[in-house]
Amino acid sequence: xxxxxxxxxxxxxxxxxxxxxxxxxxxxxxxxxxxxxxxxxxxxxxxxxxxxxxxxxxxxxxxxxxxxxxxxxxxxxxxxxxxxxxxxxxxxxxxxxxxxxxxxxxxxxxxxxxxxxxxxxxxxxxxxxxxxxxxxxxxxxxxxxxxxxxxxxxxxxxxxxxxxxxxxxxxxxxxxxxxxxxxxxxxxxxxxxxxxxxxxxxxxxxxxxxxxxxxxxxxxxxxxxxxxxxxxxxxxxxxxxxxxxxxxxxxxxxxx
Length: 256
Fold this sequence. Notes:
Residues 27-99, 163-224 form the NTP pyrophosphohydrolase MazG-like domain. GO terms for molecular function: ATP diphosphatase activity. The protein is mostly helical. Among the domains are: 6-82, Orthogonal Bundle (Helix Hairpins), CATH 1.10.287; 155-204; 208-255. The chain has helices spanning 6-20, 22-26, 29-48, 52-75, 81-94, 97-100, 108-121, 137-149, 158-178, 181-201, 206-230, 240-255. 6% of the residues are buried.
């Protein structure tokens, strides 16, 4: 198959669907938005699992959405797909002066710092302005910390971050003891934020780490359900002690 014309083919197919398909005719920026979010999560799942066939398929679905939005943009006289592609090309060239100009950098941190400086010159009022308000809180916290790091707003070593985690934990315990629920929520948020910071310093992606734990919990809990069924029971009929005993058996299986 000749792949060099694949993008042209996709655009042609979408043009036909937009003209002839009742469903495609009705789509707007707002009706596509929730579907796009769903596609991003589906892609994220395949990335976590390193499912290469799945990644290929989900990237295709996401590309379709990009072309679809560009089609709507063209219909409204706002922009075309070519404008989108040219815009990102120009952005990449402009923000990589160490490749396309005479700027010298020593490592990736300097690349990030230059990137933020260039964005400021482009009119960004804050280094945090590019972070979407609707971004999930855990990922947003990580991005906030990564962004502020580029201007030197950063702990000097892991020990300092560890101390901060312990300080925030103590403040949380005190809030719980005092019984002020609003304060408990605020301190819990501080603990999460500090833990995400600590994760960065020990070079762990907190989102990926938590998702690995989620998947492990799901796998183990389903195995507990299976074991209970093998004994002719359901979890509703079992005590916490009995379920915990099965849980420990599952953990022992994992270790083997």
